[in-house]
């Protein structure tokens, strides 16, 4: 069953990436939606029939994946469905694809271990209840990141169709518009936390740690929407791998310090936000060097705003924290609009 799932999933993702690369975003979304809708419908059918076997639940999941795969093949039939004589085997291209794919695969593994190492350290040092508090806040942040990552899918095909000489200027424009949105998004934290405390009063303690982790949506959002997309467009896969490996090694070091040498749950939680800032900052500096632009000052200002947010959200009551951060955000927007009048005027 595992082998069938791997076959269906990998082939389906090949079709999805093919559609995304050719800017057929709606079609790729339909494949993913079809998969989950079919699974839910078949699962509800089993439950309605009084069947609760986990084995059959796995089977209907695999069926949904295969049906969505066949639908994807149908959408890409002009490219995929041909006689075998139509296809040519190019060993040099295969080797090149394996090299690029290996770098990206290892980068993804290292990226997961950046947070995963800290979570493992917390689990080993403290009890399950404490680990659950951090996991809940990370799960909420990851849910938000799912929506942010979905937007990044649209940007990559746009960059591939843009002249290389125009990409540095386009980066500055997108960044100028993106960062106010991401930093403004932090304002939603205060009503969100209040609503969750009312809805889940038993988890009030764990929601306090949400203030320390929530800014990762800014750094991860910028990384997913802009930096990683640009690095891939410029074929800088090794840079992505280098940044993620270095961040992973730093994660191991900070985990040892904050969970075993000087055990402190607050510092361990804060290290997650710091690590993702470090990865984002380093990747952007290396990308900016390639684009021949300067973004270090802007990145540091954004980091300072994130620190102010953490202080306001952690140390102050919700309303007071909201007002403090709102004032800081208004000042930031006033400076941004003042220094980019032409861009914001065209946006209106």
Automatic annotation (TrEMBL):
UniProtKB keywords: Cell membrane, Membrane, Transmembrane, Transmembrane helix
Membrane topology note: Multi-pass membrane protein
CC annotations in GO: plasma membrane
InterPro entries hit by this protein: Poly_Biosynth_Transport
Subcellular location: Cell membrane
Main location per the UniProt record: membrane
TM ranges: 37-56, 134-156, 177-200, 206-227, 239-262, 268-288, 295-316, 322-339
Record-given protein name: Cps9N
